[in-house]
Amino acid sequence: MVLVENGRIVDVVPTGTAVNCPVLDVQDRALLPGLIDPHVHINEPGRTEWEGFNTATRAALAGGVTTLVDMPLNSAPVTTSVANLEQKLAATKGQLHTDCGFWGGIVPGNAGAVEGLIARGVLGFKAFLTHSGIDDFPNATEQDLRQVMPILARHGLPLLVHCELTTDDNTWKLGNKRSYQNYLASRPKAWEDEAVALMIQLCEEYNCPTHIVHLSSANSIAPIAAAKAIGLPLTVETGQHYLFFNAEDIRDGQTQFKCAPPIREKANNDQLWEALQTGIIDFVATDHSPAPPDLKQLESGDFTTAWGGIASLQLALPVLWTAAQKRGATLPDLARWLSKNPAKLIGQAHRKGRIAKGYDADFVVLDVEQSFQVTADMIHHKHNVSPYIGQQLRGVVEQTFLKGQLVYHRPTFLQLNQGEIITRI
Question: Where is coiled-coil annotated (predicted)?
């Protein structure tokens, strides 16, 4: 039994213990800590037609996600200064249904803004080593990173990095633009591997907490393991889509699967699973990156011009549980990959990610045996474009609690606007 008072867990006691308070029996369903997704593109302000705080955090509740962290793009303005962060904070008013933190952005020339963003409470910083997809968030160079990593090391804040060092070879665009295999070949593992190697080098040089986002190349697993073995402050995530889908199964023209780095072959993805299960990969995050249907080029199927991003925030839990069960994973594994370890990255391990005394009473009640087919009409994101539509998933989110309050009871949202801004300060 979990005892809750004033939004916190006051104790965890054996079932059947006499208590002088109302009791909610979840019966044979699983009670898990609320999910934490530290890799979400909410896109507000500026691109609210892509997604927004209202739709993103509602969808999160329906998926058992109680805390998320917003990326510094693709909003307009991007979160690269205190003034821009203030605009984003203002945009949350009246439409924040989960707890939410923010990453600052590292772009060329904004090293001077880092201390101010830290003082304002960002949880860390994100940089791209290749074009981000929008021109107002240009990629950082090695020299840019060398300027900011000593600052982050001093404050103990993580640098999150999109690891691809790209070349200018666009010859693949001369071929079949609808071919997924052409798109896959256009972003080879070597781009990731070189970028990961650079970040391991810089991590060791500056002793700066460094986090590799959405790892897709299994070739980088061995050097990451070696870096961790010598005690470097290096962490790694992968995404649900790299663990659920395989390149061999993606047909030409299916641009709903386009993301960067790309979904790779089954043999590669099997190695990602092994690295996750052995702890080399720390956790799984969605990289929820939605866009309007026209930007996904669903009609033309053109991978060269389609927006690269997969919207999956609401489905994070059942997607991973469906795939994990096939590999013998357990509910404690799920809680570690979706709650406990993400809480460490965002500096909230003292209050979130576990069902334990003193922690926030954020819970998800999961029917682990029930399955369902994903349909477009059940999706609460701004747009219902998703590669998961039509998939049979296992694990139904029945209830979501935020700080002890029942905020979602399938299919109804009960209490909205209960979310708070989380900071490092």
Answer: none
